[in-house]
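TASK: fixed-backbone design
INPUT:
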């Protein structure tokens, strides 16, 4: 089979299905501009999508890689994580080659976004799959005539076999804000981050590649442009309170997010910013 990009119906919402000649595959939803599925060639699914995710074209989809823009979490007056993850994006480009498939989706300001956030902007999300690699790049442009500040993230839900048996390496020595402990500033003292309770941390100024180790497989994570890394797992009690998560869903997921959360990005009229996250199955 050659590389392909097909328009599909995914639980009632329009999406694109990408495939490479080697067998890598992904699904990207137009609602939210969101990667919902990714598996490397001859490999298993590596993104977590909740069994109870809502696909009504209005509610943010729980899982995959939601785009948080122009606000991360509750750091402002907008709805949590902003509005990009609950808007309809359009296809700007789709292309395949011998060993890759690429789609670029775009979202611009309209009457609905300006009612929430009175700024002119253009977003592009490029998604590229290769044999063992997923690249996601978010491009933000100020198309208005006034400057604006924003925070953002690629809120990546990774599928794990058992979160308590997973080790995230590469964050040693970094300062983080512990949201689960009132936002206290702490320093990472472990060689690996282990999830044994509710975990909600914003690691600052992360420049090293990360490695998520499981029993018999690993996943490399690299980011550019995004200065921060968010690590999140709701654990038992908070997971049970989420209507769109199964009660044991926290055991099968770990969010490792490329983010610009600690300091807002400032864009003057006409300026652009970009950030990228790359996942590599090892």
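OUTPUT:
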């Amino acid at each position: 089979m050659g590389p392909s990009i097909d328009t599909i119906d995914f639980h009632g919402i329009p999406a694109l299905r990408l495939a490479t000649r080697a067998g890598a595959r992904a699904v990207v939803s137009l609602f939210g501009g969101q990667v919902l599925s990714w598996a490397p060639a001859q490999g298993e699914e590596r993104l977590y999508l909740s069994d109870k995710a809502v696909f009504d074209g209005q509610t943010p989809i729980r899982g995959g890689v939601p785009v948080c823009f122009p606000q991360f979490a509750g750091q402002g007056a907008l709805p949590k994580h902003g509005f990009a993850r609950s808007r309809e994006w359009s296809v700007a480009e789709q292309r395949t080659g011998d060993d890759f498939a690429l789609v670029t989706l775009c979202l611009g300001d309209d009457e609905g976004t300006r009612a929430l956030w009175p700024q002119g902007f253009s977003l592009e999300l490029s998604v590229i799959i290769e044999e063992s690699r997923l690249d996601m790049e978010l491009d933000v442009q100020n198309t208005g005539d006034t400057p604006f500040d924003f925070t953002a993230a690629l809120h990546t839900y990774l599928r794990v076999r058992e979160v308590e048996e997973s080790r995230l390496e590469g964050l040693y020595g970094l300062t983080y804000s512990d949201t689960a402990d009132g936002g206290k500033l702490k320093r990472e003292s472990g060689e690996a981050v282990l999830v044994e309770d509710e975990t909600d941390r914003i690691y600052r100024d992360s420049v090293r590649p990360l490695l998520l180790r499981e029993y018999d497989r690993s996943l490399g994570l690299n980011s550019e442009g995004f200065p921060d890394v968010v690590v999140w797992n709701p654990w038992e009690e908070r997971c049970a309170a989420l209507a769109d998560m199964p009660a044991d869903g926290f055991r099968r997921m770990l969010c490792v997010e490329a983010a610009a959360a600690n300091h807002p990005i400032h864009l003057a009229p006409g300026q652009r910013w970009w950030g990228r996250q790359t996942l590599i199955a090892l």
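COMMENT: The radius of gyration is 18 Å.
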